[in-house]
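ERR on first pass: missing label on line 2. Operator R.T. fixed the label and resubmitted. Corrected input:
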Amino acid sequence: MTQRVWLLGFIVVLIITPALVTGRVSLGIFIFVGLFSLIVIGLTLLAGHAGQVSLGQAAFYGIGAYISAITTLRLGLPPVLGVMLAVTGAAFLAYLIGAPIFFLRGHFLVLGTLGLNIVVDVVIRNVQGLTGGPTGLTGIPPLSVGSTIIAGDRAYYYLIWTLVLVALWLGRNLIHSRIGRALAAIRASEVAAATLGINPAFYKARMLALSAAFAGLAGALYVHYLGFVSPSPFAFNFSIDLLVMSVLGGIAYLPGAVLGTAVLTVLREVLRTIMPRLLGTGASAEYEIVVFGLLLALVVVLAPGGIWHWLAAVLRLDAGESPAPLPKPLSRERKGVGEGGSGATLLRVEKLQKRFGGILAVRGLSFEVKQGEIYAIIGPNGAGKTTAFNLISGVLRPTSGEIVLRNRVITHLHPYDIAGLGVARTFQTPQVFSDFTVLNNVMMGLHRSLHTGFLGAMFGLGRREDARAASEAAGYLERVGMLDRAMDRAGALPFGAQRLLELSRALATQPTLLLLDEPASGLSTTERRELVHLIRQIRESGVTVLLVEHDVSLVMGLADRVLVLNYGEQIAEGTPALVRADPRVIGAYLGDDEVAS
Amino acid sequence: MSLSQQIAQFIASGIINGTIYALLGLGLVAIHSVTRVVNVAQGEFAAFGALVAVSLMAAGLPLPVSLVAAVAAAALLGGGIHRAAIRPVRNATPLILLIITIAVHLALKGVLLLLWGTDPYTLRPFTVGPPIRVLSAVLTRQSLWVIGVTAVALIVLYLFFTKTIRGKSLRACAVNPTAARLVGIRVEWMGTLAWTIAGGLGGLAGVLITPLTLATYDMGLILGLKGFVGAVVVGMASYPWTVVACILFGIVESLGTGLISSNYRDAIAFGALIVVLLWRAIATLRVGWIVSEEVAQE
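pass 2 clean. output:
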């Protein structure tokens, strides 16, 4: 409720502002705050939600500006078409750069975009035939729709601020959608997200393209508003200003983007009047960077939430939100056991090797898992069990050997592709998304079975699908007896409950093969008994289970077949009874000396 | 001058520039491997070292004293930044640490501007004398100083990393911080040490290059970025290969600039950066999604 009131108040202020200010300069500032807000909204979506910083937003802004200027001025295209070309051109270039760079996990985008900004700046200044060089281009036509020409400060003021509100709405929808949840999951744990079938690079690259599209739009509007363009506003320094705006407002909050832009733009005007008086005329504009740098450092270290975080608390903006109701659980029919039926080979691992530096963690591992069985790998610490799991789920790539799922070689597939083929896994230390609710964690398991794309999500089209997914997720929680905790924060759950949650999230992906990495470690005796029961149930429902375990007695009572590893080598395989009698197994567990004596 | 002579000259100056980039690239690798931070402010160490040396000279100190003091000051600055800005928030996300180094870059650049203004400064060459001919290229004496001093620095660094317990501890932190902590290495101190080394190497780059070009408050960013190109080619991991990559990059940049147009110098350099990043990404796709075991168990 309060949120709506404040939003309405803000819109009213926006509407009446032009009537209150007089003189061209002052309305001009409001127009620029709006233009920059568009860019910063894109940057906030990228930094706050995809977790990646770009120092090339000024370049995308410039690319948008020059595309629209050149296509309308030199090719005579209608300005509206020029704007569209600017938006798609900026987005396309960003995607071309982002899609590969995001495969480098870490923060390489910031240097790539920084380099891009310098390249774009140099090119604009030097390709004089096209861009007019340092002096730029003049006589760019104003925007027009049919025969109506959009000209004058007021027209652009209303146009730009309408677009800012639209951008906020689109961004908000996106954050609260399937896509937004995937991005949050990636920020929490890329590995866990990838094993649920989410390709982190795919989502990050699209977010970069979206942020570049907003910047390109701002650039195009800028040239049609001023009728003139020159290279200086698009230099690298402006990219830094944009980042400061985003961080200052609050990097995780979309309204913060507008707030940060407004505060910094006003601050800059103030500095430009004060600085020359304090420090003499000289290079007073250059001194801004001192203030901006210190401001950025102070905000990041002392108040990482930015101004909006503080403002939202003061105005109690989140007080109006009531907690979402618990959805009605819905259980989905499982697909059949799959082609081949029970007894056919589901997973075949052949001569698998993994070397870390000088250590051979897995040496020559070969085994087959049959459809519908519970297959266990046991062995003492350091036997290479977890590494084998990481290899099968694609988290690590083997040094040599082959992994075949049904008849398909999956050795060189990425974890998200392997997840898409029906392989789900849990981790030795549960990898739940701790800031999500329990229900949303399970919904991440359903991610691949939902279909809302980027555009659909931006226009809020995925809500019905989401409601259904929430019900399904509740169904999975009911199966493991955790429905009453659906709305709790996952990170607040005790260890055993986190394991169960991770398991139901894995089940929600509708796997054909479920990999459980030490599912019983850290559980109490009662919890272990329940776990055994649950794993049997999972097998009954047609899922093949491959588990790695420490607890020998648990495995012996549960598994159909057991493989024993020691120092990366397999020493025995067969039914629990057979393995238990094997002298080499006894040797590995009790020490060779005792066998000898 | 014939074309082959020109090319020899371009290659020679490329090697000199590449040597400077290598000093910055090594600092970036040291910081990244120990503290997992991409340090956007690396080039500021060079600007700081150069300007301090200029001021000490102007104050009447002899050249060798000024140079050593300037490099030491840059090293202290590096360690100080780690203690003041990185260590207090070491549990922050990589995103926050990255933004902090951007802030440090801006703040340092600002401080340099306040102290030294916008004027370019110069430093006299370490030794005077006519240029020297090597094959068909002509080299200034300062160029030989650049290569000679860098070579000594590399040998010292090599001995430090392979022969001393501190150097080995530093490498251990880079490979596996958790294991390093378990065997009693103070990982936080190693972080400060890495930043100190990076600061010193940056300062060294600054004092070596100033007699050839000029020192200004804003010379850092471009230099630091060029060091980054070489470091990222080899995956921010190997010290010796970073040096090789930086020198090769210096040659490519110099040839590109000489044969195409000097207006495009930075465009060629940073175009190369983007190409290198894309090439690394594709290489990563081939070797696997996650390369280290540590990350797989995160």
